[in-house]
Amino acid sequence: MQPFTSSAVAAQPIVFVGTFTGVNDQGKTAGQRDAYRICFALADLKSGKIVAKSRVFSTMEGIDATPTPTFRDSPAWVKDEATEAYIKTCQATKIGDSLDPAYVDRILAAALISDAIEAYDARRYQDALELYTSAQGLPAGDQLRVHNGIYLSNWMLGRRDAAMVAFGRLIDFGLANQRLAVKFLFKPGSTAFWPDPQVSAPYTFWLREIAARGAKSGSCLEITGHTSPTGPEPLNERLSLLRAEVIKKRLDASAPALAGRTIANGVGSREALVGNGRDDLTDALDRRVEFKVIGC
Fold it and tell me: Are strands 289-294 and 35-44 parallel, antiparallel or unpaired?
């Protein structure tokens, strides 16, 4: 096996694709998770076919779910077309199926993004920025991972103006796709942001950009708060709504034109993405706030 790099992909190898999904005791991605569903597939780029497939379940004990630096630091999440194509290639195929064209079309960009992630995780931020920028220049380069990476690399290099521009493009991407989740990390059981300035220092700037871009787009936004699955669900629903209202008030104050075009909603832990209930950085996405474009 070789690392997934742009040079390796150029040889049209068989690519090892995998997904790692927390599920409950009924095998569904809802509520508290009890196990991991692991899917593996081998995708032959020469033949364009799935040539092997396997699925197993793992207990959660002993699994290190701590995100690597890139995914720990990334401010936003959305299931864009590139992500959906990757998941489909692994989870919605059987041996002999043709590869999803959307996955094949994005394979070179994916390899460059992989190179960029490796550079970022190694704190080679200038190299990461150059690789993310190269990926962005490809036909399939308009992806959330690229926008996240350009923002993060500029931020780590101390290029605040360039980071602001990149974050604005990230927000525009989310609005264009009708949905964007931003990782505002709240203290467990609270509407207060995580007190570590290494984590929460950019939040004021993020909120200002979201407000400005939302106002400029003329969109109406549903702001939905989420929680981790710890605690009684009625309390989680109330907490998630309060978190959404905190964000709504901040946005409305920053861009008064938005005041009549935003609504707050809370869904508790019903749409948890990680669901391990640890209330730390491993399940930060469960304490997110989503912005969904709705009809005015």
Answer: unpaired
DSSP H/E element including 224:
strand 220-225
Judge contact between 267 and 275, C-beta under 8 A: no
The predicted model scores a pTM of 0.89
What are the structure tokens assigned to 206, written together? 């993020």
- One-letter amino acid of 111: A
Alpha-carbon radius of gyration of the chain: 20
Using one digit for the tens of pLDDT, what is the confidence trace for 175-219? 888 888 888 888 878 899 988 888 888 999 999 999 999 999 888
Half-sphere exposure of 140 (CA within 13 A, CB side): 18
249-257 own/partner pairs: CB under 8 Å, 24+ apart: 250/207, 250/211, 251/207, 251/210, 251/211, 251/214, 251/221, 251/223, 252/211, 254/207, 254/208, 254/211, 254/212, 255/211, 255/212, 255/214, 255/215, 257/215
